[in-house]
């Protein structure tokens, strides 16, 4: 009897434990940031432990192998948005083609629209800056295409593909050079770091939406 009660209580508890998919975009941002921080703590602990082992010539090869795996895990995904200006002009298809032609694999994608509050949260790092209000208004003005992309060295390679924030200074052949009209209407967003890629991806996508 006691055993049955224990199993029932355990089952009910597990059923009530929230997962990443149960939270709104803003909630997932906080959880994703915590998970990224936890990942770095674990990685740092592993690195220290294996380094101490390597001092005694133990598992040195394993240390190198794990460091390589952690590096791959940290750099193979990025987040992008095709912004309202590019969507309105009908550039979704050509931009996605250029992205996939560059070797990126789409792991999640959706056509959606940010609310004003969504945009404020997504660009919270720019709160108080002169361009913040215009940015929020623009990004919530129409539909966007949000996507998670996968490729080795994804963050850096995608930043190269989209080009400079200012399309006039962007290299020839980059997405912003081709499809953007100004710094404030620059067609495509790309995460600027592995940490931000994870946070921004969680803002737009629940775990069940990512493949």
Plain-language structure description:
There is one protein chain. With 211 residues, the chain is α+β, with helices and mostly antiparallel strands. The chain has ten helices and four strands, in the order αααβααβααβααβα. It has helices at residues 2-16, 25-55, 60-75, 84-88, 92-101, 116-122, 132-139, 154-162, 175-179, 194-204; strands at residues 77-82, 105-112, 144-150, 188-190. It has a four-stranded antiparallel beta sheet. The radius of gyration is 21 Å and the shape is globular. Mean pLDDT is 81; it is low at 2-17 and 68-73.
Brief overview, please?
The protein is an alpha+beta fold. It is built from ten helices and four strands; from the N terminus they run αααβααβααβααβα. Helix 2 runs antiparallel to helix 3.
Strand content: 5-15%
Counting helices, strands and paired strands, the structural category is: alpha+beta
Would you count the extended β strands for me? Answer: 4
How many DSSP helices?
Answer: 10
Oligomer: single chain
- Largest sheet entry: 4 strands, antiparallel
**What would you report as the Rg, rounded to the nearest angstrom?**
21 Å
Strand order of the largest sheet: 2-3-1-4
Give the SSE string.
HHHEHHEHHEHHEH
Which bin fits the share of residues in helices?
Answer: 55-70%
């Amino acid at each position: 009897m006691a055993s049955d009660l224990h199993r029932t209580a355990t089952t009910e508890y597990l059923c009530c434990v929230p997962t990443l998919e149960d939270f709104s975009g803003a909630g997932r941002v906080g959880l994703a940031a915590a998970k990224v921080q936890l990942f770095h703590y674990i990685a740092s602990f592993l690195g220290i432990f294996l380094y101490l082992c390597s001092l005694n010539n133990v598992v040195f090869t394993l240390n190198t192998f794990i460091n390589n795996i952690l590096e791959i895990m940290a750099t193979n995904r990025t987040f992008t948005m095709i912004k309202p200006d590019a969507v309105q002009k009908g550039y979704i298809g050509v931009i996605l083609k250029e992205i996939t032609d560059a070797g990126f694999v789409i792991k999640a994608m959706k056509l959606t629209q940010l609310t004003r509050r969504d945009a404020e949260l997504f660009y919270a790092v720019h709160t108080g800056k002169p361009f913040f209000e215009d940015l929020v208004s623009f990004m919530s003005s129409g539909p966007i295409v949000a996507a998670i992309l996968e490729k080795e060295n994804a963050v850096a390679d995608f930043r190269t593909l989209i080009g400079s924030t200012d399309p006039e200074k962007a290299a020839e052949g980059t997405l912003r050079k081709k499809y953007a009209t100004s710094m404030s209407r620059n067609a495509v967003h790309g995460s600027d770091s592995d940490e931000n890629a994870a946070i921004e991806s969680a803002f737009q996508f629940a775990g069940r939406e990512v493949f």
